[in-house]
Design goal:
By secondary structure, this protein is α+β, with helices and mostly antiparallel strands. Helix content is 32%, strand content 26%. The chain is elongated and about 130 Å long.
Length: 394
């Protein structure tokens, strides 16, 4: 090291000041190693070498981590072959299957009870000879005992078949999947199931009342319902309306009452539908067949509940919110005049030989008696749609 002012040579010494001239010396060890490299271009190759070793070291770490992962993964794959012995599967299928109540919270077809002592992935396959759409479901298992529900869809062809009750074989297959989605069979079994028709309902089942599922027979979009509404609209003006048009939910309370009467008149006058007096109770433990609204029109006859469903379908078609009242031995229809208002207009659906206004009076009378006795069910169709009770695809 030299002083640039007096050229005195200090050798390897690095003083802060020159003792000969007193000048401050700039080359000192406070620059540090990194600063020394960056301040001197001749040492740029040192920086390049350092960067190379850093990159090499990081690559080595990543490579080692990948080898460790591959080793662990291949170990799991070898163990996967024996997982089937550590997974116990039991299943139950609904032996008596009612399409009408297969919706909402009640939509359960197969119950799987799986006791697994390992982490694994399984695949289930369900089919039922042209009634159930083949369903495949993948389930990731943990070491636990857990219940799973399989809810396959009824196919369009299946609904066609279920115009009448019939027996069919339901097949369940369960496979263990490896990391390449290769299947190893765990279970393959089948069971006979009695599929009831879409018209069948059991009102009381295992202490649960299934009455609300009856709204699934209401399908406002059927051609027969649209034709009924068209004929009913032609009676609006004769009942005091400004013209023969349905305004549905946009109308006043009087407009809605007028539409209810018009639908009733169309059924009694234009269709000549007859009321069939037959025992009915939504508390019955027996299975009962209920016609769809279209079947009521085709056969020109219906029970109180069937006539109620027919009028409710037409009301829903025009945008009103129908309600259905069920008592232990009777049923009739009504409308909610505005959403969640609990203000209703009721109509006795079996009074087909009476005037529309008399049917309204009887409906109101029925309601007052039901409230007095307290033994009734009020089904709000719009609210039940929100619970997933959509029209059955018949």
């Amino acid at each position: 090291m030299k002083c640039k002012n007096c050229q005195r040579d200090f050798g390897r010494q690095r003083p802060n000041f020159c003792p000969s001239c007193g000048r401050k010396l700039k080359n000192n060890n406070k620059l540090g190693f990194l600063k020394f490299i960056f301040k001197n271009n001749r040492h740029l190759y040192s920086l390049i070498i350092i960067q190379f070793f850093i990159i090499f070291y990081l690559g080595l770490l990543l490579s080692q981590k990948q080898r460790l992962f591959d080793k662990n993964n291949s170990y799991l794959n070898r163990e996967q072959e024996d997982f089937s012995e550590q997974i116990e599967v039991e299943w139950e299928v609904e032996k008596n299957f009612f399409p009408l109540t297969y919706a909402g919270e009640n939509k359960r077809f197969i119950t799987l009870k799986i006791d697994s002592s390992v982490f694994a992935t399984i695949k289930t396959k369900v089919s039922a000879e042209g009634i159930i759409e083949p369903q495949t479901k993948t389930i990731n298992l943990k070491p636990q005992n857990k219940i799973y529900y399989l809810t396959p869809r009824i196919s369009q062809a299946g609904y066609k078949k279920l115009e009448e009750s019939q027996r069919s074989k339901v097949k369940l297959e369960v496979y263990l999947l490896d990391d390449q989605d290769r299947e190893k069979e765990i279970l393959r079994q089948s069971s006979q199931v009695l599929f009831y028709s879409i018209n069948d309902i059991i009102w009381m089942e295992d202490g649960t009342n299934n009455a609300k599922y009856i709204v699934r027979l209401i399908d406002k979009d059927k051609n027969q319902i649209q034709e009924l509404v068209r004929k009913a609209s032609n009676k609006i003006k004769a009942l005091g309306g400004q013209n023969n048009s349905m305004v549905g939910s946009f109308g006043t309370k009087e407009d809605k009452k007028r539409e209810l009467m018009a639908i009733f008149l169309a059924i009694s006058k234009d269709y000549d539908i007859n009321y069939i007096s037959s025992p009915f109770s939504y508390k019955d433990l027996k299975i009962q067949q209920i016609k769809t609204p279209g079947q009521v029109i085709d056969t020109k006859s219906g029970l109180c509940i069937e006539l109620t469903l027919l009028i409710a379908a037409a009301l829903e078609n025009v945008g009103q919110n129908p309600v259905i009242v069920l008592t232990p031995d009777h049923a009739w229809v009504g409308i909610e005049t505005s959403p969640k208002s609990q203000d209703y207009v009721f109509l006795e659906t079996t009074a087909l030989e009476k005037s529309a206004r008399e049917a309204l009076r009887l409906g109101r009378q029925n309601w007052e008696m039901a409230k007095k006795l307290g033994d009734y069910k009020l089904l709000n169709v719009n609210e039940l749609r929100g619970e997933g009770l959509l029209p059955i695809e018949y």
